């Protein structure tokens, strides 16, 4: 069963994240959706009256969390989703990652920014921390004009025949996009061929042929879920920049990319193409880092679409 963790705080970016999640098609079967709100409990060593003020503020934030949860639950009304609400307190990024472990999440969804802009500048964004440390695939949502229009969602899979590229292909294959999406598969060819930190040896002609064969393989695997997909092979000096430029040119709403397996230290110090894309993309980014189980491959409608088999709690 798919376990999804949605982190919300009531801010516009977090509610955009909930809307996009509800909008996405999903595979058959009931999904477990944990809606998490992290309430930060301030600590000030002061007198009793100040403590009472802080206590009341904390309770107010908890009540706000419940209001936000009700708004989110309405987005998924009638869906094949089992909802539950978790309120925790503590550092936001760490709390989200911990809950992903607790609920054994396969997929984590978060808005690109929360309430605190100052915190983002000084400490790094919560979404960046979560995307870096989460034990599962993570979608960081940045709003486009998708929800304000009736056009299909525009999806881009950044692909190469590496372990991380195949992993992203497998994950995106679980979504029955059908004709309800403008789907693109992109491979970027560079002279160093350093896509997601992996190098391919050979002459330029041989490399180009290898990339073309990889795109044909991806097209073959995705035809059932995205029959009208388009494949693209472009050249660029830097893979990440090539991906970003293509996404902006095509007005992509959701960019899917695999993450190369790295040690914790190398991920923090060296970065990767996925981290470059995550930080520079104008659109939502899905970083794939799960090995998808076969039972997740199925048929279904939008996650927020009504059905007769609704079950929520």
UniProtKB/TrEMBL annotation:
<feature type="domain" description="UspA">
    <location>
        <begin position="154"/>
        <end position="289"/>
    </location>
</feature>
<protein>
    <submittedName>
        <fullName>Universal stress protein</fullName>
    </submittedName>
</protein>
<feature type="domain" description="UspA">
    <location>
        <begin position="3"/>
        <end position="142"/>
    </location>
</feature>
<dbReference type="Pfam" id="PF00582">
    <property type="entry name" value="Usp"/>
</dbReference>
<comment type="similarity">
    <text>Belongs to the universal stress protein A family.</text>
</comment>
<dbReference type="InterPro" id="IPR006016">
    <property type="entry name" value="UspA"/>
</dbReference>
<dbReference type="InterPro" id="IPR051688">
    <property type="entry name" value="USP_A"/>
</dbReference>
<dbReference type="InterPro" id="IPR006015">
    <property type="entry name" value="Universal_stress_UspA"/>
</dbReference>
<dbReference type="InterPro" id="IPR014729">
    <property type="entry name" value="Rossmann-like_a/b/a_fold"/>
</dbReference>
């Amino acid at each position: 069963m798919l376990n999804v963790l949605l982190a919300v705080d009531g801010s516009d970016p977090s509610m955009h994240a909930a809307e996009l999640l509800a909008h996405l098609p999903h595979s058959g079967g009931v999904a477990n959706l944990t809606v998490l709100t992290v309430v930060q409990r301030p600590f000030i060593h002061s007198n009793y009256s100040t403590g009472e003020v802080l206590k009341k503020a904390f309770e107010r934030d908890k009540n706000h969390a419940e209001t936000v949860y009700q708004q989110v639950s309405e987005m998924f009304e009638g869906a094949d989703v089992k909802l539950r609400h978790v309120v925790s307190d503590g550092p936001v990024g760490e709390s989200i990652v911990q809950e992903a472990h607790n609920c054994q999440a396969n997929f984590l969804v978060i808005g690109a920014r929360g309430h605190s802009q100052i915190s983002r500048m000084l400490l790094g964004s919560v979404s960046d921390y979560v995307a870096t440390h989460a034990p599962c695939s993570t979608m960081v949502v940045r709003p486009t004009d998708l929800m304000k229009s009736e056009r299909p969602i525009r999806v881009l899979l950044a692909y190469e025949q590496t372990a991380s590229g195949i992993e992203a292909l497998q994950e995106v294959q679980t979504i029955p996009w059908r004709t309800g999406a403008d789907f693109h598969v992109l491979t970027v060819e560079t002279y160093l061929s350093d896509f997601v930190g992996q190098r391919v040896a050979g002459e330029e002609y041989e490399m180009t042929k290898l990339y073309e064969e990889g795109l044909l393989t991806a097209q073959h695997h995705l035809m059932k879920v995205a029959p009208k997909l388009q494949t693209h092979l472009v050249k660029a000096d830097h893979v990440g920049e090539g991906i970003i430029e293509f996404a902006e040119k095509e007005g992509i709403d959701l960019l899917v990319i695999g993450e190369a397996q790295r040690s914790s230290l190398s991920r923090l110090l060296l970065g990767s193409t996925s981290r470059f894309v995550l930080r520079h993309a104008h659109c939502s980014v899905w970083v794939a880092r799960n090995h998808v189980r076969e039972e997740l491959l199925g048929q279904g409608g939008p996650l927020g679409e009504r059905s007769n088999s609704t079950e929520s709690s």
